Amino acid sequence: MRKKRVGVLISGRGSNMVALIEAARDPAFPAEIAVVLSNRPDAGGIERARAAGIPALAMDHKAHGSREDFERAMHAELEHHGVELVCLAGFLRLLTPWFIETWRDRMINIHPALLPSYKGLHTHERAMADGVRIAGCTVHFVRHEMDVGPIVAQAAVPVLPSDTADSLAARVLEAEHRLFPLALRLVATGAARVETRANGSEHVVIDRIAAPPAALVWPQVD
């Protein structure tokens, strides 16, 4: 089996990047992490990637004349490493239409909310302020608008009565670490693919989906 070569873009500590690296250690996993790029030189994930034996490069976006100049430099580095798929793993920078179209249907992002709800930042604080009972995370293909694009996979977690935004964030992050490798596996094998419907909307079609065991219902009472 030829594995897809993956580039991971980060801006911080890279915990989702680590989850992808760990998943890719499995010989049966259909992708390998070829390179990690960060737009912030102080990102903790750079050393974590290097410690795992993954080439990692800090590319300070401030050192480039424009947003597109930075992205063209990033693109050149991705091509140099033979990257076929890109994973945004906490990459805290909006991408230009040029970069998004260049990697269209080959770039996925993880977001800490059940899209299309709670796009943008401060997702857990907003969810708790609204009193939602179930939160979660989403992996989706990247499009021009922020946190918009065909959804590959989602994971849900309960919001507990004792939760703070930080405790909810920690529970969602655990789900992210399980969800992102699953979504990458689906995309890398071609089991998940984008189709455009007659009305122009885009949806991800996934082959061989098993029936879910049950719905997540929360709260549960005696």
UniProtKB/TrEMBL annotation:
<feature type="binding site">
    <location>
        <position position="67"/>
    </location>
    <ligand>
        <name>(6R)-10-formyltetrahydrofolate</name>
    </ligand>
</feature>
<feature type="site" description="Raises pKa of active site His">
    <location>
        <position position="147"/>
    </location>
</feature>
<feature type="binding site">
    <location>
        <begin position="14"/>
        <end position="16"/>
    </location>
    <ligand>
        <name>N(1)-(5-phospho-beta-D-ribosyl)glycinamide</name>
    </ligand>
</feature>
<comment type="similarity">
    <text>Belongs to the GART family.</text>
</comment>
<keyword id="KW-0658">Purine biosynthesis</keyword>
<dbReference type="Pfam" id="PF00551">
    <property type="entry name" value="Formyl_trans_N"/>
</dbReference>
<comment type="function">
    <text>Catalyzes the transfer of a formyl group from 10-formyltetrahydrofolate to 5-phospho-ribosyl-glycinamide (GAR), producing 5-phospho-ribosyl-N-formylglycinamide (FGAR) and tetrahydrofolate.</text>
</comment>
<dbReference type="GO" id="GO:0004644">
    <property type="term" value="F:phosphoribosylglycinamide formyltransferase activity"/>
</dbReference>
<feature type="binding site">
    <location>
        <position position="109"/>
    </location>
    <ligand>
        <name>(6R)-10-formyltetrahydrofolate</name>
    </ligand>
</feature>
<dbReference type="GO" id="GO:0005829">
    <property type="term" value="C:cytosol"/>
</dbReference>
<dbReference type="InterPro" id="IPR036477">
    <property type="entry name" value="Formyl_transf_N_sf"/>
</dbReference>
<comment type="pathway">
    <text>Purine metabolism; IMP biosynthesis via de novo pathway; N(2)-formyl-N(1)-(5-phospho-D-ribosyl)glycinamide from N(1)-(5-phospho-D-ribosyl)glycinamide (10-formyl THF route): step 1/1.</text>
</comment>
<dbReference type="InterPro" id="IPR004607">
    <property type="entry name" value="GART"/>
</dbReference>
<feature type="binding site">
    <location>
        <begin position="92"/>
        <end position="95"/>
    </location>
    <ligand>
        <name>(6R)-10-formyltetrahydrofolate</name>
    </ligand>
</feature>
<dbReference type="InterPro" id="IPR002376">
    <property type="entry name" value="Formyl_transf_N"/>
</dbReference>
<feature type="active site" description="Proton donor">
    <location>
        <position position="111"/>
    </location>
</feature>
<feature type="domain" description="Formyl transferase N-terminal">
    <location>
        <begin position="4"/>
        <end position="184"/>
    </location>
</feature>
<protein>
    <recommendedName>
        <fullName>Phosphoribosylglycinamide formyltransferase</fullName>
        <ecNumber>2.1.2.2</ecNumber>
    </recommendedName>
</protein>
<dbReference type="GO" id="GO:0006189">
    <property type="term" value="P:'de novo' IMP biosynthetic process"/>
</dbReference>
<keyword id="KW-0808">Transferase</keyword>
